[in-house]
Amino acid sequence: MKSFIPALAIALMPLAAAAEGTVSVHDGYARGANPKSGAAFMVIENAGTTACTLMGATSDAADKAELHTSRDERGVMKMVATGPIEIGPGSSHELARGGDHVMLMGLKAPLKDGETVPLVLDFGDCGLIHIALPVDNQRKPGAAGADDGDHAGHGTMTH
Ligand SMILES: [Cu+2]
To answer: Is 122 within the bounds of a domain?
Structure first.
């Protein structure tokens, strides 16, 4: 039984080693779809050596925050709840219009330009990330200043 305690210690290590700063979020913003719901978009980067998984999110600005993705079903964009989103070591994942996003449901107040929306992202063993996203209802789909036409045709999405 000599190995029992060391094995337990090793099993607990990932929690203790959940290095802060491994996962970072940038280029985030939120926008309202209607007075009661909105969505948050951002680029998540994992600079660590192990995968980190976005398990879910919460926001003080909304009753509920859900991970969603958008799907093109015979030319009609539909949003569906999606499972955890894994970001591999050394890679990044974009939550973008027409793709994955954090849906804010039951907004306590409509999202107004110039305000910020608090969001807590739960990366499980990789920790929690607290961010405040600017509200930008005018922002067009696609990367800022780099609307290269890749997203053409997705502009009819309703949020
Ligand atoms: Cu959605």
So the answer is: yes
Q: What is the DSSP letter of 50?
A: S
Q: For residues 142 and 137, what is the distance between their CA atoms, to the nearest angstrom?
A: 14
Whether 149 is in a domain gets the answer no
Write the single-letter amino acid at 33. A
Rounded distance from Cα 36 to ligand 1 centre (Å): 12
Pairing relationship of beta strands 23-34 and 101-107 according to DSSP bridges: unpaired
Number of domains comprising the chain = 1
Residue 79, Cα to own-chain centre: how many angstroms?
15
Name beta bridge partners: 39: 31, 103
Q: Amino acid letter at 31?
A: R
CA distance 24 to 44: 6
State the residue for tokens 């409509």: 110
Summarize pLDDT for 63-115 with one digit per residue, the tens.
999 999 999 899 998 999 999 999 999 999 999 999 999 999 999 999 999 99
State in Å: Cα 102 to ligand 1 middle. 7
Please give the distance, rounded to the nearest whole angstrom, from the Cα atom of residue 157 to the centre of ligand 1: 10
Q: Does the structure show a pLDDT above 60 at 143?
A: no
Average pLDDT, stretch 28-55? 96
Cα 60 to its chain centre, rounded Å, is 15
